[in-house]
Amino acid sequence: MAENKTKPTKVSVKKFIDSVEDVQKRKDSYVLIDLMKKITKADPKMWGPTIVGFGSYHYKYESGHEGDTCLTGFSPRKAAFSIYAMCGRGYDEYLDKLGKFKHGNGGCIYIKRLSDIDLKVLKDLITASVKDTKKKWG
Question: Is residue 58 assigned to a domain?
């Protein structure tokens, strides 16, 4: 079975965020860090080279694939932020009110800038996602 490539690293989150070229994206990153830290009560850690993750859980699918990943997190990519949370079916009540975003596969949404969305709705979405993830995976 293939090993997960995205694992926690010792890289400094601050150093990573401060290396983001776009000034607004850097500022938005610190807003997301504060938001996700309050929700998860976990300090941010780098997961792989580009994901700022909070908390962790172990999953195991029926297929036998298993691994560890962050409860929630984000990556300040050039085109848009990738927000990692359970954002699929069952979260429409949040997504319908979130604002301007694109949907990725599984639990990922893409947001160009935080000013495009309702931050309170994002907080509620991530809070529900973290709660549901903990309930499902312990």
Answer: yes
Looking at the domain assignment, is residue 76 inside a domain? yes
- The pLDDT assigned to 8 comes to 92
The helix/strand/coil state of 10 is coil
17 falls within a domain? yes
Q: Provide the strand spans (E) within the chain.
A: 44-47, 51-54, 57-60, 66-69, 72-76, 81-84, 102-103, 108-111
Q: Which CA distances in Å does 114 have to 24, 26, 89?
A: 9, 11, 23
pLDDT in tens, 49-98: 999 999 999 888 888 888 888 999 999 999 999 999 877 678 889 999 99
Pseudo-torsion of CA 50, 17, 26, 109, nearest 10°? Answer: 30
- The 10s digit of each residue's pLDDT in 111-130 is 999 999 999 999 999 999 99
In a domain, 5, yes or no: no
Burial of 20 per CB tally in 10 Å (0-12, 13-18, 19+): middle
Distances (CA, A) of 75 to 40, 47, 72, 90, 92: 17, 10, 11, 23, 22
